[in-house]
């Protein structure tokens, strides 16, 4: 590898690194200037009401899902016990 090739590769890698660092710096600066909407105080009253309505709608579903899970667990245990016990003999057969 010649000196010219080495310098060309060094400049290209350095240029790429400088470009990435500059892009990240600009992106961070842009994001810092955006208004922050992550805090609960930043939500409008309509947004809060919509979230509360959605939660009121979802909570009964959670209770129903828990009930269904309990029933499913019971059925799984019952099926497991019936498979372990084996089949019962028919008393009319000899």
Question: Can you give the helix content as a percent range?
Answer: over 70%
H-E order: HH
For the biggest sheet, the summary is:
none
In total, the number of strands is: 0
First-to-last CA distance: 94 Å
* Helix-strand category: mainly alpha
Q: Give the domain tally.
A: 2
Overall body shape: elongated
Number of helices: 2
Write down the overall mean pLDDT. 80
Which parts are unreliable, with pLDDT below 50 for 5 consecutive residues or more? Answer: none
Computed over alpha carbons, the radius of gyration is 33 Å
Strand residues, percent: under 5%
Secondary structure: elements and pairs:
Elements: H1 3-33, H2 45-85
Overview of this structure, please?
- The protein has 94 residues and is mainly α.
- It has helices at 3-33, 45-85.
- It has 2 domains: 1-33; 45-86.
- It is 77% helix and 0% strand.
- The protein is elongated and about 100 Å long.
Provide a concise account of the structure shown.
With 94 residues, this protein is mainly α.
Could you name the key traits of this structure?
94 residues; mainly alpha; 2 domains; 2 helices; 77% helix
């Amino acid at each position: 590898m010649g000196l010219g090739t080495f310098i060309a590769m060094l400049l290209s890698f350095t240029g790429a690194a400088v470009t990435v660092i500059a892009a990240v710096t600009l992106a961070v600066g842009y994001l810092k200037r955006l208004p922050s909407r992550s805090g609960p105080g930043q939500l409008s009253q309509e947004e809060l009401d919509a979230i509360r309505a959605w939660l009121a709608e979802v909570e009964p579903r959670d209770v129903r899902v828990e009930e269904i899970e309990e029933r499913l667990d019971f059925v799984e245990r019952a099926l497991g016990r019936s498979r372990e016990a084996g089949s019962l003999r028919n008393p009319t057969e000899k």
